[in-house]
Structures are given as C-alpha cells and as structure tokens.
Automatic annotation (TrEMBL), chains A, B:
It comes from Pseudazoarcus pumilus. Pfam families: FAD-oxidase_C, FAD_binding_4. The keyword Flavoprotein applies. Keywords: FAD, Flavoprotein. The record marks 312 as: Important for enzyme activity. Residues 95-277 form the FAD-binding PCMH-type domain. One of its GO terms (biological process) is lipid biosynthetic process. This is FAD-binding oxidoreductase. Its cofactor is FAD.
Length: 534, 534
C-alpha cells in the first residue's frame, strides 16, 4: 500500500541501510571492546520464515475493506516498534503479537468510520505514526478482553493544510514524517527545526502524542512548546482546541492530549508554531579534565540565560565508542544558531564558562560544522545510529538506551548509582562486563536530562529476556534516585510500572476518569498510560 | 487575625492609599475626558453600614473553631475579589454573598481537617490567596445546594521551606504574597521575577491556580514555566508531583492542576524554578506614526528570537490617559535584562527593527530606568493603578479591563471589532461616550496578548449592571474574533459562559470527570471551570 516500503523488521526503508564500511566499524569496535575475534551473524528475518496467528478479526465491513490490510508484510511491520528489545524478538522470528488488521485511513471520515467500527466490535486500536517507539508504544501486546487489535497507520494523512505566514504557523496533518514536513515547509521559507533522533521515521502526531523532545538542547526543547492547537478524534467524537498563541483560560486542553500516547484518541492535525531557517550558526567542541568538571560547566551554562542550541556533554567512553574523540576525556558539543543575528558572542561567553571549569576548546566552526570536527563526527554517529541497530542485533550485541531528568543537586548520585547498578546487572545477567555511558541530551536551569547507553553480549537465545532484566534494573535505579522514568522516550508499555510509581496516585485516577469520558469501551491503546483493568 | 489588615472593600492594606496628588490627577484627567466640572464623591463603605446574612453554618467543631472567623470584617473582606464590578457592589454596601465562615489554617494538618469537615457537611470551599481576582474567582456566589460557604484563606502558609541553590529552586508554601516571597528569596541572592500587576496582593498558590502571567513580556511569560512540582490537597487526599526539571512521562500532572482555579483542591506548596537577580538592564521608549506600525514592529521583534523582557506597545490614547506620553502617538516600552551579560546589543537590534517600521526612539536608559522616562512614567501608572480604583468608583467612574491573545493574522480584525463594539456598547448602555484603549502585555512569535481598558460614566445606581453589560459585549466580541476569553485574568465565575464556548466540549466532560475523582461531592470552588449542575 505504501509506495516506498518500510523494512518490516528494522529501522528505515527497504532502500536504506548501513554501508559496509559502517558495519565493519561497528564490528571492529565491539570485537575489541568485548575481546572477541569475530561475531556470528544471523540473517535478518524474511517474511516466509515468519508464522503469524490467523487474524481474529474476519468480517471487515465492505465499506472499510479497501482501507484494511491483513497480509503478512503489513501485520509484521506493525508488530513492533524499533527498540533493541523489539529487534531481538524480530530476529528470533517471534511475531506472536501481530495486529489482526492494519488500517490506512485516507482522510478523517475514514478514521471516524474505523473508530466507530472498532468501538462497536470492541477491537483494541493502536495509533501508528512512524512506528519508531522504543518503549512498546505500538506493540499489540494487549491482555484484555478485546475481539482483536486494529493498528491504524496514519501514513496518508501527510499534508500541510494551511500556512499562516504572518503568524508563522501552519496547520498540518498528523501523519506527516519529519523529512516530508521539513521539505514542504521549506517551500514557505519556514522550518519546525524539530529533529529527534527518530526524525526520519517519526511523525508530527507521534511527537505530540509522546511529548517528544527535539533539536534544541535548552529552552523550548519539547514539541509541547510548538503546538498551537490540536485536533484529535476520540471514540466519542472530535476534540479540537482553539488556535491561540497563549491562553490562561483554565487548564490547557492541549496538555490533556500531549503525552497521552494514543490512550484517548488519535491526533489528526495540529496548528504548529514555526521558525525561520537559521542564518547564523556556530559550533565548538570542548573537552574537560573529567566528567564532573564538564557537568559543572554545563550547569553554569544552563543557568546563564545563553540558551545554546546544542549543549551535549558526552562522557569519555561514549566519545570513544562513537569514534568522535579518542582523548580519554569527555567532550561537550556546543552550538548556537539564529535566523536573524550573529551568535558568536553567545558562543564566546559559553566557552568562557567552559574554560572557567577547566575546559579546553578542541575546535570551533561556522555554519553547520564540518564533518571532520569532533562535533561533526559525533553528530554523524548520532544520525546513523538507528541504521546500525539491525547489524548489531544480527551479531548478538545488545545496545539499549534509557534517559531521564533530575535536578542538578541529584545528578551526581543518580549518575553513580545508575552506572554502578547497570554495570553490575550486565555482569550478573550476561556473565561478562559491558559498557555503560552517559551524555546529556537536554539541559534546564534546574537540572539535566542524562541519556544512558549500555552495550553487552547476552546469550544469543535469551537476548530479549536478558536485556529486559538489565533495563528493569536501570529503571529501578533511575526511579530510586528521583529521576523521571522518561524525559522523551515516552511511557509505552515498557515503562508503565515505573510511570505508575512516579505519577501522583490521584492523577492516575483522574486521568483514567478523563479517558473513560472519551473512550467508554477502553479501546484506545489499552495498557498505555492507563493500566488495563486487572 | 492578620496583623496588618487588608482593606475589606478595596485594593491594598489599610495603611496604604493613593496620595492626594494622585487622586487630584485622576479627577482632572477624567473630568476633562468626560467634559464635566466635578465628581460627586461617595464615601467608602464602613463595616457598620453593612448588613450581612447570619451565617448558615453554626456548629463549627471545637477542634476547628480556633481557625475559623465569622466576624463582619472577615466575612466582608472575603466577599469579593478586586475588580471594578466587585468594587461597585461594595460601594453599594451589597455584601449579600458573604461567606459563612472564613478559615485560616496554620499548617497542612489544619487544612486536611477543614476539608474533611467541609466535605462532611457539604459546605462549598473557596480557596483564597491574595483575593485579587478580577473575574469573580473568590466570590461566594454559589447557586447549588450547599450548607454554606467556607472560604479558606492561606495567609499563614507563607514560608520558604527549602532552597536548592545548586538547582536554583525552592520549595515554597502557596500562601506567600509576592513581596514576602521576593524579600525571602533575596536573602539567598535569588528571585522569581514574577511581577503581575497584582504582585503586592497575590500569592504563589493563586498564581499557579490561575495560570498567572508575569514580568516577562516574551518567552516564559506564565508561572507555568517556573513550576517544578506542585503539592495540592484535595477532598480525596494529597496530590503531589515529583520534582523534576522536565519529564515526558505521560501528560504533565502539574498541567492538570495549573488553571484549575481551586476547582479540584487547594495548592499547599510548590517547588519553583528561580532566577538570578538581573545585573544588566537597559530600557527604551519608542514612538510610532500609528498603532499598526507599532504592531508590525512588535511582531517582527516577537519573531526575531530577541526575547525582550519588556515589550509593551501602548496605544496613543492609553499613553495619554496614563500621563506617560502626550504626543498623540503610540509608545513601545522596551527593555532587556540579564544576570550575566550586557544586553545592549539585543536592545540595539530591537531598536533597529523599530526604526524599520517608522519607530522614533524617545529615550533610552540603563539600569531600572529613571522615573522621568516615558517608560518610567508608564510603569509607575501601572503599579499604582490598583490603588486608584476605589477613588474612581467613589467618583462614579467605571474603569474595567479585559484581555486576550490571538494569532497575528487575526489581530487587526479583533482590535477593530473590540474597539468598535465596546465604544458603541458604552454609548448604548450609559448614554455617553467613553474611552477604549489597547496595549500589549505579552507577545509570542505567533500572536500578541492585547489588553483592553475602558472607561465610562454609568448611572450611579446601576454601575455594576451597566458595566457588566459592556463587559459581556466585549467578551462576545473577543470570542467572535477567535481570541481566548482570557490570557491571564483567569476564568472565575465571570468568564464561564465564554470559557465553555471556547474549550473543546469533550475536554469539558473529561475535566469534570477528573474533578469528580478528587472532589466527589463537588465542594471545591463550585461553578468555576466546571459549571455547577443545572
């Protein structure tokens, strides 16, 4: 149905892949790290190796049949998100939880008809944007008493419907992918400049539903701040907020939608606030004698009011493993940009703060930054990372990530606890050491958003189970140190137990009551945000 | 009970007042404006002129009796907020809706006991911070079937409980007044720099409950952005969010509290993000050939990324009536500040934008700005304004305000419609012309927050009714042009009909369901945000 086909088992489209050079680099890095000679490589799954349960939903109404697919490719493609945990199961040819139907609405009327039908037959509905969830947000693993699962893929709702140049805003359909959005905005000289790592394979609606965080390392980091209004379809009908630059009229209706992860409805369109394309850009890489000197510098920058676009502190091991910097010291990827005025003085002020904390400037650049700067190398590794995943899984290498945010005063303890807990969990679970690294993705005046990556070599047959056990240890550690269970990866099904610990109990009850008013039969993404009934 | 007594019938404390010079200036301005020789002056109400209904609640439990007051001063003080509409009724000696009990909890245990008691006897509870509401948010005008009204005044919950210097945050009790908060933060070299016009007579909890907007004209304008976590007591128990710099874990629980205006519980404390005191400040006043040239300049500034601290465009008539500038042209009060680095270049860039739109710089200043600049005169009129109100009411002058926000593309039509509608409503209702003026209080890249003020001379006996009729015409005009019913004055009881039109219908149902989970008996500020049952 989709002209350019997405890989059903891994990141990206079928015409995209890591290059042989990239794969060799991954192999050599991790062979050296784990002290092994070579990796056994498992082939990626092919459709004819996969067995799916017959779909539980059979009688699709004639009027909806043209929108619905039940072939193996579509059902397999929509069985998982794109985490390592998902990949490990896909490489095991485990597609036990495939959706029964994959529906592609062409417009809102289609979507209304689909929701009505699902509500009538009590099928669970999984809203699907780019399918890049790393937290089980789109996985049809639903325990409750439903007649089946219908995944609704928003692929065709991908137009810019209206541009208001004067107010620098646009009304956009929720199913649009990042690159498509930017390409269409560019025709108007505008940009959203919202570049999460999933940019290529995620949608505006997905960003809003999961409260994604994007390009800007400080200031307006979340998509939340770029949303002017939202239109959502719920089983009870449409929910649309008035388009406003700001409003103090009661609790924000949009904030009742953002972060609900499809548990109350499907976002169909949104007015978004846009930016002008940056004209001035500067970048620099700074190294520090040790991680906590870097942390102190970044804290000072976060409280300076300078608001860098980029301010990503990467610890020494992560800098080395990503082939960005081999100096055995942490690096800070720093950058400023503006559409209107030069930002050199901001950069110089930030570099002064770095020097005050023992920072040494490795390079500086103008414009987008050459690829041969340390920051350029890091950025490239960041963008290409998702394409490596399938090749690491094929080689039995577990690479997982988790992220949080915590006040500055709690960071040192959280960092120590997490690194220690996860390192030990890796040894305990897999029998040999792995790596645990940390960087900051976003910074706030009152605390950082640290992002952790771990690598290990689990048992080939138990990759999913072992990785999951380590993830659970990590989540417990983050939670016990007062961090949030997620800064921007969302809750999904994976984070639900910790999310329920974190949120106020009464909020959980209040939100569940809200959900019931718009989704009486509880069909919307069951088990996400609101737990399935026991 | 309160050492320094608040005026029961007007803005401020009993030891504060407008000066005789200020009163003379008000008189001469408006005598000239309305073309009359002199004003008949009505004396402010005295307690012994007022008759209150006997309290409906009589049997206060012994354990709570020390917290509760039923004397005339306390009941009168808590009968109204501080709008013109409130004042008009107070000067008419109309205190028909006095609360039955005014309770002063000393701590959270007191508050729990009070809420339990109110829930048990089904008394309506009105949370009371500084009582500065201009939208009937604290007025005990409740139609439903309650045994009475208990107003809970948070006066004694006014401590800073904890300061986290490293994370630049503090845990503060909700009943603290603005000046007290800043005085106590100053001891730590910190500031919230949150200065709504109500600053002197409003509280942290009130700001959060009503989503107040403060000092900063652009960027982080709302208190929302300074809230790290909230603790609220509801009839069902405490609701407390985890203290975090940012989180993407589900919809924000704090955003479910901010803007609820006491309809779900009483905020008792909050972790707030603080700022350093500004070290660099610059200001300027610019005038423009006409209002819409100024609008165009401000729009360009709002989209430049410069983020001025002050950017208040004041139309020619408002500049003249506030005695700020008599040149028959609009003024722009512009300012930048920073704790860390000079902001002159930002100011110069903004002034360049102004000149591109025909702006002429009237004055520039460093530091806080001398009082003899046009901006200084305007600021003084702004701060002193609330103190004039009682003297205007005494003279039969109606002065009311309303405010909104709208995309830039909708502003011109909204502005024309509102000025025209309200001007004509004044003539129709009062039989003679008044004034309607406009300024911008806050600006966003996608639209301004215009603030309108009208003055007229209603019938002395029907001041409340006539002013209300004009307000309704204004609200209809704002609503019909797509503006929000309020940018920062909140909803209260006054704005409910337009709020219900503005918000998504399903959101209204969803929020009402949320409320029921924490306030089963519907005792919390009935009729605000969630309509009373018909």
């Amino acid at each position: 149905m989709t002209e350019r086909r997405r890989k059903f088992y891994a990141w990206g489209f079928e015409d995209q892949s890591a290059t042989p050079e990239e794969i060799r680099l991954v192999e050599s890095t991790w062979a050296e790290q784990f002290g092994i000679d070579r990796f056994d490589v498992i082939d990626p799954p092919k459709l004819d190796e996969i067995e799916l349960q017959p779909p539980r939903i059979r009688n699709i109404p004639t009027s909806l049949a043209p929108l619905c697919r039940q072939d193996k490719y579509e059902r397999a493609l929509h069985s998982y998100g794109r985490s390592f945990l998902d990949g490990a199961r896909m490489f095991k040819r485990d597609f036990a939880h495939a959706p029964d139907v994959v529906a592609y609405p062409r417009n809102e009327a289609d979507l209304v008809a689909l929701l009505d039908w699902c509500d009538e037959i009590r099928a669970a509905v999984i809203p699907f944007g780019g399918g890049s969830s790393v937290v089980g947000g789109v996985n049809p693993e639903i325990k409750g008493d439903y007649t089946g699962v219908v995944t609704i893929d928003m692929w065709y709702l991908n137009e810019i419907l209206e541009v208001d140049r004067e107010s620098r805003s646009a009304r956009v359909q929720a199913g649009i992918y990042g690159p498509d959005l930017e390409r269409k905005l560019k025709e108007h000289g505008l940009t959203l400049r919202f570049f999460p790592q999933s940019f290529e394979m995620s949608t505006l609606g997905g960003w809003i539903a999961t409260r994604a965080a994007g390009h800007f390392a400080s200031g307006a980091t979340y998509i939340d701040d770029y949303v002017e209004s939202i239109r959502m379809l719920t089983p009870a009908g449409p929910w649309e907020s008035r388009r406003l630059p700001a409003s103090g009229a009661g609790p924000s209706p949009d904030r009742f939608v953002m972060g609900t992860e499809g548990s109350t409805g499907i976002i169909t369109e949104s007015w978004i606030r846009l930016l002008e394309r940056p004209r001035y850009k500067v970048g620099a890489t700074v190294t520090f004698p040790d991680f906590h000197s870097g942390v102190a510098a970044v804290r000072a920058i976060s409280q300076s009011g300078l608001d860098p676009t980029n301010c990503r502190l990467v610890d020494a091991l992560e800098a080395q493993l990503t082939k960005s910097y081999d100096g055995g010291k942490p690096i800070l990827v720093l950058g400023f940009e503006s559409p209107r005025y030069p930002v050199d003085s901001e950069q110089q002020l930030a570099l002064e703060i770095c020097r005050d904390h023992g920072g040494e400037v490795l390079d500086q650049s103008e414009g987008s930054g050459a690829n041969n700067t340390v920051s350029g190398l890091w950025r490239n590794a960041f963008i290409r990372g998702p394409y490596y995943r399938e090749h690491m899984i094929a080689r039995g290498i577990c690479r997982e990530t988790f992220e949080t945010a915590v006040p500055w005063s709690g960071f040192r303890q959280l960092h120590e606890t997490v690194i220690d807990t996860v390192s030990r969990a890796i040894v305990r679970v897999t029998g040999r050491p792995g790596t645990v690294t940390c960087r900051f993705t976003h910074i706030y005046p009152n605390g950082p958003a640290p992002y952790f990556t771990f690598h290990c070599l689990p048992d080939r047959d138990r990759m999913y189970e072992q990785c999951l056990e380590i993830k659970h240890a990590a989540a417990d550690a983050v939670d016990s140190c007062g961090g949030t269970i997620t800064h921007h990866h969302a809750v999904g099904r994976l984070h639900m137990p910790w999310y329920q610990r974190q949120r106020p109990d009464l909020f959980g009850l209040a939100f569940a009551a809200s959900k019931r008013t718009v989704d009486t039969n509880g069909i919307m993404n069951p088990g996400v945000i609101v737990p399935e009934k026991p």
